[in-house]
Amino acid sequence: MANLGYYFRRFAHMDFSHLRDAIDVSHEKSGKSKPAIFFDMIGCLLRYGAGYYDYQIFALYDRTPQQRATYVTRGVSKKLNLFMNDVAYMHLFDNKDEFNKLFAKYIRRGWLVLAESSREDVRAFCQGKEEVFVKILDGECSHGCERIRIGDWPDFDALYQHIRDGGFGLLEDVVDQHPDVEALHPGSVNCLRIITMLGDDGEPHVMYVVQKMGMADSFVDCNCLFAPVDPETGKIRYPAHSGNTTKGIVYDEHPDTHVKIAGYQLPFVPEAAAMCLEAAKVVPQVRYVGWDVAISRDGPEFIEGNTYCAHDFWQLPPHTPDGIGMLPAIRKVVPSFRP
Prior knowledge:
Elements: H1 4-12, H2 16-30, H3 34-48, H4 52-57, H5 65-68, H6 74-84, H7 91-94, H8 96-102, E1 111-113, H9 119-126, E2 131-135, E3 145-149, H10 156-165, E4 170-173, H11 179-182, E5 192-198, E6 204-213, E7 225-228, E8 240-242, E9 250-251, H12 269-279, E10 288-296, E11 299-306, H13 327-333
Antiparallel strand pairs: 1-4, 2-3, 2-4, 5-6, 5-10, 6-7, 7-8, 8-9, 10-11
C-alpha cells in the first residue's frame, strides 16, 4: 500500500475542480455512478499510488486489479525516479551547457555557451544564418527557448542585446531535419523520445520509443502529438495521441499536414536507439533517462536528456490494447525495484 503520509499531503493540496472533472469524465466513459467512481479512485490512490489524473487517463475504471497493478502511476513514478537516479548527478542533464559538453560527440549542430563566448563569437556564430535557437540553461518543456529569425532584427547590436537581456545561456544552430521527419510537421523540431534504463545487470535497455510532433504554429514538439515507434523497424505503431493526455484525442493523421500516422516509416531509428544505449553508460549514476533525439539528414543527434520522465505517455489506452502498463517491463530489467 502507498505511503499514507505522502497521499494525505497530496489530498491537502488537491485541486478539487480537477477532481470533479476527472470524476465526470470517468463517469461518462464507464457508465458507473459518480460516488462509485470517487470511492474507487480513493482505493486506487491507496493501493496503486494512482491519483485522479492517472485514474482518468489510464482508464482504470475499466481495468481489473491485475491490470491496475501493472501501471507506473504518479506515486510509482516518484519512487522509480528516486530509486534509479542519484540527484547529485542530475545537473549533468538538467543544465543544458553541461549536457552539451558531456555528450558533444552525439550533437551534430553547432552551439555556444554564452557565458564563455565574446560578443564577436556570437556575431561569428550568427553570420550568414537565417535562424538560431537560444535557450536558458535549466529550462524544460520548451520554456525559455526561442527560435530567432536573424532577419527580424535591424542589426546585430539589437539581436545581441535581446539575447543578453533574455538571460539565455546557450546558442544553437537549427537542426537540419531529415525531410521524412520534417514532413510530419514543418517548422518544428520533431524529436524521438527514447527511454533508456540501466538494468540491475549494468546493461542499458531501450524501454520505449515515441515520435513527438509539433502542431499549428509551434516550433517545438512539446505537448502537441506523439505516437509509439518500433525501435527495430522505425515504423510508427499506432495513431497519435494528444499531448495533453487528459483530452484523450486520437489522430489517425496529423491535423495540419494530413500525414497518416500509423505505419509511417521514420529514418535512422535503430541508429538513434543505439546512440542512446551507448550514451546511457556515460553517467551510470543516472540510470533512467528520457532522451530527446532529433533526426538530421545525416543521422540522429541529441537535443537533451531528461532525468524525470513523464509517466503517462507510454501507457495510454489507445497504445496499450491489452490494458497492461509499463511496470512489468521495468521489473524485468530492474527486478530490485519495489513500488
